[in-house]
Amino acid sequence: MDALRKKIITYFLTLFTLPRVKEAVAGYARLFLGEASRYSTGIKTEALETKETFTILTKYIKKEKITKAEKKQFKKHIVDILRSSGIMVPVMLIPLPFIGTLLLIIMDHLLMSMNIHLLPDSFYPKDKKDLLTPKGIEDDLKKDKNFIF
Hints:
Radius of gyration: 21 Å
Oligomer: single chain
Shape: elongated
Structural class: mainly alpha
Order of helices and strands: HHHHH
Helix content: over 70%
Largest sheet: none
Number of strands: 0
Strand content: under 5%
Number of helices: 5
Number of domains: 1
C-alpha cells in the first residue's frame, strides 16, 4: 500500500512540476487571487454603504431633513441588502461553509456570463466590468505572457 501511495505522490509531483502545468496552475492562481480581491473589496464597500444607510435611517427617525440624493442612495442600498440576504443566507446555511462559499462563487460566475448580477453592485467593479465573462477571462489570459493558452 505504501509503494502505491509513493507512486501516486511521485506522479503528481512530476505532473505539477512540468512547465506547462506550472504555468496553467499559476494562471488559475492569479485568477483566484483577482476574484478573492474582488470579493473582499465588495464586502468592505458593502459595509461602508450599510453604515451610510444606517446614518440616513437615523436621520429619518430623528425627523431630520433628508436630501433627494440620500433618499435615492437609501433605496438603492436597501435593495442591495435585500438582494444579498436573499441569496447569501440560503447558500450559507449549507452545513459545510466552504461548500456554500464555492456554490455562491459558481452561481455568481454562471449568472455573470449571462449578464445577471447576483450580488450587490459593490461586488462588480466598474473598471473591470467584463472580467468574469468568458471573453473577459480569455482576454485577460492572453494579455498574460506567462500563461499558455
